[in-house]
Amino acid sequence: MYKQNHLTNVRVVLSHTSHPGNIGAAARAMKTMGLHHLYLINPRYFPDPQASAMAAGADDILQNAVVCGSIDEALQGVALTVGMTARLRDISNQVMMPREAMPRVLQQAATQPVALLFGTEMSGLTNEEVSRAQLLVNIPANPDFSSLNLAAAVQVMAYEIMLASQSYSPVTQPTPAAAHEQVEGFLAHLEKTLLEIGFFTTQNPARMMQRLRRLYARARLETDEINILRGILSVTSEYNARLKTRYQQEKDV
Question: Residue 140's CB: how many other CB atoms inside 10 A?
């Protein structure tokens, strides 16, 4: 049962593609390795005859592709997002090579959706998109010419996950992780509460939230844990509001 389901739970997400031929070539790369779910975030041209031509028989993947208006829409329901990166960043999640990352991806995909997230052809993933990933993967390449074509990168990742699936068996039942939208809801709640209590007075809010995203990405929060943390935040906000009200009343006396 596991081997029938794990690849079904893998979605390939392409963000802001410029060239429709890359979408078609990516679809072909996916189909050759048993992947079927393609999500597109604001593609410049799609549908497009060039995409169909480059798909070369993978038209069903193009026909079933889900076009999304935002990264959060594309990642809805996803429990693990793997972002592809070709460059080092000052603040990032754990970076692995494809072969060492795939067992972890398959472990989660046994029971929940996972996403392989690819950025634009010219500049890759934005910092905002990277912040949505719990794991980053770098494909080893010539350091003097390390930028892979988008479809080629999809092919490498699709091959690696197919290769890993041939011999991989879960040792233990994976712990269900919170879905993408649950984590994002918690992080928005956290930022709002930290603003309310004045935590950012001496901090750079954007940079601090990046670090907190990294921390919680490592934690791989479960739904019950999210509910506990949001309960703490709600009580914190209520207590802070009461303190402000009391202070104002004493000031007015």
Answer: 10
Domain with CATH 3.40.1280.10 in the chain: 2-167
How far is it, in rounded angstroms, from Cα 14 to Cα 186? 25
Longest pairwise C-alpha distance within the chain: 78
Q: What is the pLDDT of residues 118-130, one digit of tens each?
A: 999 888 899 899 9
E strand intervals along 193-250: none
* Spatial CA neighbour of 133 closest among 174, 94, 88: 94
Distance CA 10, CA 4 (A): 12
The pLDDT of residue 2 is 40
Identify the CATH assignment for 180-252 out of 3.40.50.300, 1.10.8.590, 2.40.40.20, 3.40.605.10. 1.10.8.590
CB 7, CB 34: distance < 8 Å: yes
Q: Calculate the average pLDDT of the chain.
A: 90
